[in-house]
Every structure is written in structure tokens, then in C-alpha cells.
Amino acid sequence: MPEPAALHPSDRAPGLLIGEGVTLPYDAEIGGNVVIHAGTAIGAGVQIQDAAVLGKPLALGAHSHASRDPLPPLAVEDGARICAGAVVLAGSRIGARAMVGDRAHVRERVAIGAETTIGTGSAVDNDVTIGARVRVQTGCYLTAFSTIEDDVFVAPGVLTTNDNDAGRGDELAGVVLRRACRVGGGAVLLPGIEVGEEAFVAAGAVVTRDVPARTLVVGIPAKPVRDVPEDELLPR
């Protein structure tokens, strides 16, 4: 991997370090001890809280199969908020008015849509696409190569997986969460699972099969129990 570009102190905020090509809008709010790596694009009205790291270069383990191709700079769009201690890698995009919570981690080639929230201590792995107005709560893991559509709700402690061979194969398949579906606290989704539009996965469920649209599934393994009623559906 190439060496990261040099960082330089800035008097814009206490302990701030920035790389080459970083321009901070006049109305950006910067906390203490923030690090912004080279080329990172910061939109108007962005808030970056204490000890956040933006545009971090990629670091991979010796046995990682992830792409080592060069990454474009991180882009943080207007009005987004990166909270205290969060780490967001180069090659990703944080949408307008989105929030990356305290101590959250967002890897490379991630797209996070407008007004989406990534909760405290949650991790978004590489090559994940997240739509608008998604709410990911505390302590979730969104596995690599997943797609989360608009208006999805992911409760605390949800775990998604993408490797049926537990590290001994080459095929990875993330999950797909369709528009406005809900995943309850502590649920586990196996590789390649699709949760249909407006479906509801109950807390603690282990999902081993695709969930049809507008279906509530419960248990280990998760099984359908009823349809989601009309009065719980989001307007289109």
C-alpha cells in the first residue's frame, strides 16, 4: 500500500491535522484533535466532532481479499455530521445531512444516502450502499457488499454476514434490505439474504431464508407468522 500523504497542523481548531488539498468551508464546525486526510471534500455546514478521522487510507491484513485499487478521496456532503471518534475511510461518500455516530466505522467504497444515521459504535464494511433516511442503531454490523434501500430501520445489535465458508472460500454475498423493511434488535442475517419491502424481522431472529415483502418473521430459524398490517406501512 502507498504511504499516506503528509498531514499538517491547522489553526482552524485545536489539534487539527489536515492533508493536502483539503479546504474547509467557513461554516464547517471542527472539534478538537480531528484528522482530515488528503483530498477529502467537506461540504457546507458539515460538523466534525472531537477526534474524528476522515479520509483514512486503507489498511488491509495480510490475508485480506479486498481490493487494493487506489481509492478516490472521501466526500462529505452539505450538512453532514461526523461524530466524536468516528473513522471514515477514503473512497466513500457521506450524503447530505447524514450522521455517522460516535465511534462508528465506515470503510471504503461505501455510499450513505441523505439524512441517514449510522448509530454509535456501528460498523459499515466495504462496498456497502445505503439509501436515504435509513436508521442504523447502536452496535450494528453491516457486512461488505450489502445493499440497504431507503427508509430501512436496523435496530441495535443487528449482525449481517456474507461468508458461508467462514473464511475458506472466495464467494462473498452481502444482504439486501429492501425499502422500508425493519430488522429487530439482535437479529442475525445469513449471507445473501434478502428482506423484502416493508417486511419485519423480529428481535433475536436468525434469518436463513429470504423474507417476502410485508411479512413478519420470528424465531430461530426465522419463520413467517403474519403479514405486516396496512397501518404500519410507510407512505410511498
Describe the structure.
With 236 residues, the protein is mainly β. The protein is built from no helices and 30 strands. An 11-stranded mixed sheet has the order 3-6-9-12-15-18-21-24-27-29-30, with no helix packed on it. Strands 1-2-4-7-10-13-16-19 form an 8-stranded mixed sheet, with no helix packed on it. Strands 5-8-11-14-17-20-23-26 form an 8-stranded parallel sheet, with no helix packed on it. The radius of gyration is 19 Å and the shape is globular.
| Rg, Å, rounded | 19 Å
Using the alpha-carbon principal axes, give the shape: globular
Strand order of the largest sheet: 3-6-9-12-15-18-21-24-27-29-30
Helix content: under 10%
Number of strands: 30
Sheet with most strands: 11 strands, mixed
Listing every helix as H and every strand as E from the N terminus to the C terminus, the arrangement reads: EEEEEEEEEEEEEEEEEEEEEEEEEEEEEE
Termini separation: 45 Å
Average pLDDT number: 95
Strand content: 25-35%
Label the structural class.
Answer: mainly beta
Number of helices: 0
* Unreliable sequence segments: none
Short description:
The protein is mainly β and 236 residues long. The protein has strands at residues 7-9, 17-19, 29-30, 35-36, 41-42, 47-48, 53-56, 75-76, 81-82, 87-89, 93-94, 99-100, 105-106, 111-112, 117-118, 123-124, 129-130, 135-136, 141-142, 147-148, 153-154, 159-160, 176-177, 182-183, 188-189, 194-195, 200-201, 206-207, 215-218, 223-227.
